[in-house]
Design a protein that fits this description.
The chain is an alpha/beta fold. The protein has one domain: 2-Layer Sandwich (Nonspecific Lipid-transfer Protein, Chain A). Helix content is 40%, strand content 32%. A 5-stranded mixed sheet has the order 4-3-2-5-6. The longest helix has 13 residues. The N and C termini lie close together (10 Å).
């Protein structure tokens, strides 16, 4: 079991995204970089990112140069989304996540983002 927002989580997430039929179908012809910032985590503030391009997804800790959009939330919200307890649209509409950057691109790839959240909720993580 990987710790949420750890290197092991990112590795498991990358593998699961690239092996999931629903996610791989959703990432056809997608070129997207999302930067995530999670505050109030047990180890402080954590940055990670998702890139999708050329039929490959990568989830990694750190900062993505030239991200298309950024998503900020506190740890509780990030964990609830990752567990599948809170959907991304509801989190956005209630102000639990803040999205910046290219909103048109975020909206265009909403299906992919939903698939990302779905696959994330299947990971065996310790919170």
């Amino acid at each position: 079991m990987a710790q949420f927002l750890s290197e092991d989580h990112m590795a498991a997430g990358t593998a699961s995204l690239n092996e999931d039929a629903g996610f791989t179908a959703a990432m056809n012809n997608v070129d997207l970089g999302l930067q995530f910032n999670v505050t109030d985590a047990p180890d402080g503030e954590i940055d990670y990112y998702l890139t999708v391009g050329d039929g490959v997804a990568v989830l990694a800790l750190g900062t993505l140069e030239d991200a298309d959009a950024s998503v900020g939330s506190d740890y509780e919200t990030a964990a609830a989304i990752s567990k599948g307890e809170l959907n991304v649209q509801m989190a956005f509409m209630t102000g639990k996540i803040k999205v910046g950057g290219n909103m048109a691109k975020v909206m265009m790839y909403q299906g992919l983002i939903n698939e990302f959240a779905r696959v994330s909720s299947t990971l065996d993580l310790d919170f």
